[in-house]
Design brief:
The chain is built from ten helices and eight strands. It is α+β, with helices and mostly antiparallel strands.
C-alpha cells in the first residue's frame, strides 16, 4: 500500500474513532411532587385485578390476545426477528451449486467435412458441467459483532413496543369499561328523574283539580319530564355504542352488545402503589424500547465506523465438466482457492458522509430516549396528582349529595302538604340532581384516573426478573 493511501486510511479511521453515542441525560427528581398515597399491594403486571371485577379481567385478557393492534405488533416482532436472522446469515459463506447440460446436433449442408478428434463438422456433441463456487468475507474487524448487536437491539425494541401496545390496550379497555359504567349510571339517573317527574306530574295534576295549585304547574313539570325522557333515550344509544367499542377492543365483534354488562354503579378506586421515579426506567416499556433503539443505532454506527477497514474475501470453488463429440470425449474436475482484499480509498469521503448520518441518527435516538424518560415522569406525576384531587372531590361531593338529597326530600314533603311552592321543590331537585351528576362524574373520573396512574407507572407488562432474563436471551439470541 502506498504511503498516500495509508495516510488517507489513517485519517479516516481517526475521524471514525471519534464517533460514539453520548451518554443520555436521565436525571429525574428523587420523588414525585404528589401527595403520598396509601401503601397498596398491587401487582402492576396485572393491575386490573385490583378492581376485583371478573368481567373487566376477562375483557382485558381477551383483548391482550385478540386485539388487532396487539396482533399487528406480534407480526411486526416476527418480521424483525426474521430480519435479524437475515443480517446474521449475511456474514456466513455464500455460494450456490450450479449445473448445466447441452446437446448439439450438427448437420453439414455444404463445404468440406472434417472429422478428427476435438473438431467435427457434423454429428452430435454433448457437454455437462457442475460448479460450486463460494464467497466468504473473513471478518477481521468485528463487523459481525456490531451488526449482531444492532439486530438484537432492534428485536428487543420491537418486543418492548409489543409490550407497550399490550399495556395501552389493557388501559384502553378498562377506560372504556368505566366510561360504560358511567353512562349506565347517567342512564339510571335519567330514568329515575323521569320517574320522579311522573310522580310530581300526578301530584301537580291532582292539586290543580282540587284548586290547590294552578294547572300551569303540571305543564311545567311535563316539560321537565320530556327532557328527562329525551336524555334517557340519548344515553341508551351512547351506552350501546360504548359496549360495541368494548367488544371491538376485546376482539369480540360478532357478539351482541348485551354481552357486556355495565352495572349502574361505581365502586371505590383501588390504591396505587408507592413507587420512585427511578423505577420508571425498568417499569415503562416505552422507555425500555427507546433504550434498545439507542443500542441499535449505536450498533449501526459501529458498523459504519468499521466500513473504513479493508475487507478480505475468500473465494474457493470446485467444478466438474464432461464433453463428448464424435471420436472425442473429455471429462475433468477442478478446484480453486483464492481471495480478494479491498481497501476503501476514493470511497472514503462517501463513507465519511454515511458515518456522519449514522452519528446524527444515533443522536436522535439518544434524544428520543431522554424525551421518553421526561414524558414518563410527567405522565406519572401528573396522574398521581390528579388522582389525589379526584379522590378529594369524590369525598366532598358525596357529602354534598347526601345533604342535597335530604333537602329535596324535605321540599317534596312540604309541597305535598302545601307548605312550599313548586319553584322551591324544583330548585331543590335541580340542586340535588346537579350534585349527584357531579359525584357520578367524579367517581368515574377517579376510576379512569387510577387506570391512567397504573399505566403511567409502567403497569400492564411483566417487568419482572424472569422477563428481564427472557429479554436478555432475546438480545443475545
Amino acid at each position: 500500500m502506498r504511503a498516500s493511501h495509508t495516510a488517507a486510511l489513517l485519517t479516516a479511521l481517526a475521524v471514525a474513532a471519534c464517533a460514539s453515542p453520548r451518554k443520555p441525560d436521565l436525571a429525574m427528581p428523587a420523588a414525585f411532587e404528589a401527595p403520598a398515597s396509601a401503601q397498596a399491594a398491587v401487582d402492576l403486571d396485572r393491575w386490573w385485578l385490583a378492581f376485583d371485577d371478573p368481567q373487566l379481567t376477562g375483557l382485558i385478557e381477551q383483548a391482550l390476545v385478540r386485539n388487532t393492534d396487539v396482533r399487528t405488533a406480534v407480526a411486526r416482532l416476527n418480521e424483525v426477528r426474521a430480519q435479524r436472522l437475515g443480517v446474521l446469515l449475511g456474514f456466513l459463506p455464500k455460494g450456490d451449486l450450479s449445473g448445466s447440460t447441452r446437446r448439439t446436433e450438427t448437420e453439414q449442408l455444404s463445404g468440406t467435412q472434417f472429422e478428427f478428434p476435438g473438431f467435427v463438422t457434423r454429428g452430435s456433441s454433448e457437454s455437462e458441467s457442475v460448479n460450486f463456487n463460494v464467497s466468504w468475507e473473513i471478518d477481521l474487524f468485528g463487523r459481525t459483532l456490531a451488526a449482531r448487536r444492532s439486530a438484537n437491539a432492534e428485536v428487543a425494541a420491537q418486543r418492548f413496543a409489543l409490550e407497550g401496545s399490550r399495556a395501552a390496550i389493557a388501559a384502553q379497555v378498562a377506560d372504556s369499561y368505566f366510561q360504560a359504567r358511567g353512562l349506565a349510571i347517567q342512564l339510571a339517573d335519567a330514568q329515575e328523574t323521569a320517574r320522579i317527574q311522573r310522580s310530581l306530574l300526578d301530584l301537580a295534576t291532582r292539586r290543580g283539580r282540587l284548586g290547590l295549585a294552578p294547572t300551569s304547574e303540571s305543564d311545567r313539570i311535563a316539560g321537565d319530564l320530556a327532557q328527562a325522557e329525551a336524555q334517557a333515550a340519548g344515553l341508551e344509544a351512547e351506552l350501546q355504542a360504548q359496549r360495541r367499542a368494548i367488544l371491538i377492543l376485546a376482539g369480540r365483534l360478532a357478539e351482541p352488545t348485551t354481552a357486556v354488562d355495565a352495572p349502574p354503579q361505581v365502586g371505590a378506586a383501588p390504591a396505587v402503589p408507592v413507587t420512585l421515579p427511578s423505577q420508571l426506567l425498568a417499569r415503562r416499556p416505552d422507555i425500555r424500547e427507546a433504550e434498545a433503539r439507542v443500542r441499535s443505532a449505536a450498533g449501526r454506527q459501529d458498523v459504519a465506523e468499521r466500513a473504513f477497514f479493508p475487507t478480505l474475501t475468500l473465494t474457493p470453488g470446485v467444478g466438474w465438466s464432461r464433453t463428448s463429440q464424435p471420436g472425442f470425449e473429455n471429462e475433468s474436475w477442478n478446484w480453486s482457492i483464492g481471495g480478494t482484499i479491498a481497501q476503501p480509498i476514493l470511497s472514503i469521503p462517501n463513507k465519511l458522509a454515511e458515518l456522519k448520518a449514522e452519528n446524527a441518527r444515533t443522536e436522535q435516538a439518544v434524544i428520543a430516549y431522554e424525551r421518553a424518560v421526561q414524558t414518563a415522569f410527567g405522565e406519572a406525576e401528573g396522574a398521581l396528582v390528579r388522582l389525589d384531587a379526584d379522590r378529594r372531590r369524590v369525598a366532598l361531593l358525596a357529602d354534598g349529595e347526601a345533604r342535597a338529597g335530604r333537602a329535596f326530600r324535605a321540599a317534596r314533603l312540604g309541597y305535598e302538604r302545601g307548605l312550599t311552592d313548586l319553584n322551591t321543590l324544583l330548585s331543590a331537585e335541580q340542586a340535588w340532581r346537579a350534585t349527584r351528576t357531579q359525584l357520578t362524574a367524579a367517581q368515574v373520573q377517579s376510576l379512569r384516573r387510577t387506570v391512567q396512574a397504573y399505566r403511567a407507572l409502567g403497569g400492564g407488562w411483566a417487568a419482572t426478573p424472569a422477563s428481564r432474563q427472557a429479554s436478555t436471551q432475546v438480545q443475545a439470541g
